[in-house]
Structures are given as structure tokens and as C-alpha cells.
Design goal:
By secondary structure, the protein is of the alpha+beta class. It has one domain: Aminopeptidase, CATH 3.40.630.30. It has five helices and seven strands; from the N terminus they run E-H-H-H-E-E-E-H-E-H-E-E. Strands 1-2-3-4-5-7-6 form a seven-stranded mixed sheet, sandwiched between helices. The protein is globular. It starts with 9 loop residues before the first strand and ends with a strand.
Amino acid sequence: MSHATLPDVRIRRASPADAEPLTHLHLDCWDDAYTGLMPQEVLDARRTDVPARIERWRTILEQSANTLVAEAPDGLVGFASAGPGRDNDVDTELEVMALYVRADRWGTGVGYALLEAAIGDRAAYLWVLEGNERAIRFYERQGFRRDGTRDEHDEGRHVRMVRAGV
């Protein structure tokens, strides 16, 4: 599974062997995306027990095939997870649970390629941190619209975005 417009990046299913690099990618992407948008102590706390996070990822990857990674010659540069939705008040059953790309790859098509590989043109929904305007604009370009639903978490308020099938 590869994307023709990304000659140096291959999109593939994540495997349990990806747990450690995926953990570091996830932590780095949170720092890239959320520094200044959520309390710094939330970001710092995520790095306090990296071995436990690696094991959590390993378990997730052993039990589910819902995670895709974008791999470049120098390592993982992004990932996406999509699967059965957790919200029961939405018309679609497909949820984008995660889509993260390293900051140095923003605007290169990696995020689009991951989203395309994860959900194609199907109807879906996702949650995005309110105030994360870069991500909100990206999802709007992919046909997602805010539906007015909000949810409070330790890291801040999230807004739900929904897309009808295209």
C-alpha cells in the first residue's frame, strides 16, 4: 500500500515491531502539534513512563490492524488509526482516532496519504483539539465540518468534525 505522490514515503500497516518507534513518533508529534495549545505538564507527563507506552502500543498493534504508518528512509514520519466509532450519536460508524505527522513533513502530503489510506472517501468523524487551527483547516480541506459537539479533557476542549461519504 503506497501513495504515488510520496516517492520517499511508504504507507503500510503497523506491526507490533513498530511499537517503540511509533511511541517516540507519537510523543514527538504531540509536542509538535500541541505545545502552546495545552498545559505543558500534560505533554511532560506523557514522557514519564516511555517503556509502559511502548508496551501499550505493542498490545494495541497485536490486537488490531487499525493503525497505518508512513515510513521514510530515515524512519516513521506519521501514523493514522481509524476504526469503529466510539460515539453513538453520530450517523457514521467510522472514526478517525488519530492522524499525526512530524512537523517537518507538514504540508508534504503525508497526512493526506495517511487519511486516504485509512478511510478513503467514506463517511467518518473525528475529534480535534479546539484551537488547533492548522489541523482544523486540514480536515476542512478533506470535507470534514464541525458539528457543534464539544468534549472537555485534561488536555483541553475537543470539537467533533464529521464528513459525509464523498
